[in-house]
Amino acid sequence: MKKALQLFAALLVAAVFIGTFVFLYLGSRPKEKRYETLETSRQDIVRTTVVTGKIEPRDEVAVKPQISGIITELLKEAGQRVEAGEVIAKLKVIPDMQQLSSAESRVRLATINRDQTARDHERQKTLYDKGLISANEYEKARQAYDQAREELAAAQDNLEVVRDGASRSNASASNTLVRSTISGIILDIPVKVGNSVILSNTFNDGTTIATVADMGNLIFRGNIDETEVGRLHPGMNMDITIGAMQDVRFDAALEYISPKATEQGGANQFEIKAAVTIPTGNATDSNSTTLIRSGYSATAKIVLEEARNVLTIPEAAIHFSGDSTFVYVVKDGDNARNYEQRAVTTGLSDGINIQILSGLAADEKVRGNEILVEKQ
Questions:
Q1: How many beta carbons lie within 10 A of that of residue 107, not counting itself?
Q2: Nearest to 197 by CA among 94, 287, 98
Q3: For helices 135-164 and 97-129, what crossing angle results, to 10°?
Q4: What are phi and psi of 92, to 5 degrees?
Q5: In this predicted structure, what is the pLDDT of residue 199?
Q6: What integer pLDDT is reported at residue 174 of this predicted model?
Q7: The predicted structure's pLDDT at residue 76
Q8: What domain count does the chain have?
Q9: What is the pLDDT of residue 289?
């Protein structure tokens, strides 16, 4: 057993030694430099950029109450369509005590004034019937009485509005009914039944009952780097891809480029907006499987420059020396090792292929990347 172990160890040492020798021998063999042969071709060169952003409705409205109160009923929910003027919620009024006290005081004063002018009117009517005063004096008394009655009616209406949110004379326009101000899709209802809400005033923005947007009028909003913003102009076409809808693409037209940069991650970025074209039959019905939702992440592909059917070579074949650009042209066929250095003028590049404006013909071949092979 001991001899067998010794023999195995000896064989292992020998194998390691031989393997090391072979590795060093192969690594020390001289290598020959050769190069890929690249061909010119005619094709389209398109330079594009991709902008990340999101899809938003152009018009998004926060619906707020006209009075402070407590929500007693919600008639709609997020995702439903609503028309302008349609009721979204009902409120129970919580009157402001100062306003209520002022409204009650106004009613009492209007009642006293009405009663006084009523007595004056009766006295003047009696005198007029007896022919003791002129018709002009009687008309003045009747006018004062009519005005006092109107003031009392107005004071009572005001009291009912402050106390109940509506009056008998304008019950159809009750402030206790919160109505949508535009037609569209309800994006969010951030309140619940029983919540207290307040109206908008000088000191606060008021409580948002619902957010409504026209989802048939969408925009793409994103940011582009300062190195590329100079090539953009309003009206450029954009190809929009939504992350949650990979098989659906939309066209868009650039309509806004911010004149001021914002710093993001150490780089200057400019905000852009584009009007999204919704294809007929696609889009915004809440029952549709292709419903576009506000806030979807999206990418926009923008063509910055393009050249059609131009002479190109792979960009790896291009060499630079100062301001000069040149290639090595193959002189004697594919397998030849003779190359001619030749200056060329380049044009548009897409990062893989580059346009050749002058210096090469359509049937010529050039030297590409270096390849090391063992000498035979």
A1: 18
A2: 94
A3: 160
A4: -105, 125
A5: 83
A6: 58
A7: 93
A8: 4
A9: 41
Counting as low any pLDDT under 70, the low residues of the chain are 1-11, 13-14, 16-34, 96, 163-175, 280-290, 332-337, 371-376
Token code pair at residue 287: 């029952």
Query: Contact 327/318 with Cβ under 8 angstroms?
Result: yes
**Shared domain check, 235 and 349:** no
Q: Which residues contact 257 (CB under 8 A, 6 or more apart)?
A: 229, 232, 233, 234, 270, 271, 272
The whole domain housing 204 covers: 64-94+172-213
pLDDT of residue 25: 52
Please give the single-letter amino acid code of residue 246: Q
Cα 27 from Cα 372, distance rounded (Å): 12
Quick: pLDDT tens for 99-114.
778 888 888 898 988 8
pLDDT of residue 37: 80
Smallest CA-to-CA distance from 41 within 338, 315, 373 is with 315
Q: Which residues pair with 42 in a beta bridge?
A: 311
- Dihedral sign from CA coordinates of 246, 250, 251, 255: negative
With residue 291 as reference, give the H or E element that holds it.
none
Q: Which helix (H) or strand (E) holds 352?
A: none
Handedness of CA 14, 15, 16, 17 (dihedral sign): positive
CA Rg value for the chain: 42
Residue 164 and residue 76 in one domain: no
Give me the residue label for tokens 């057993």: 1
CA dist 41 → 326, 354, 362 (Å): 17, 10, 7
- Residue 157's pLDDT is 80
Please indicate, yes or no, whether the overall pTM of this predicted structure exceeds 0.90. Answer: no
Q: Are residues 82 and 122 in the same domain?
A: no
Of the three residues 109, 138, 169, the one that is the final residue of a domain is: 169
Whether residue 340 contacts residue 329, with contact meaning beta carbons closer than 8 Å, is answered with yes
Distance, in Å, from the CA atom of 282 to the CA atom of 304, rounded to the nearest integer, reads 28
Q: How far apart are CA 93 and CA 67, in angstroms?
A: 7
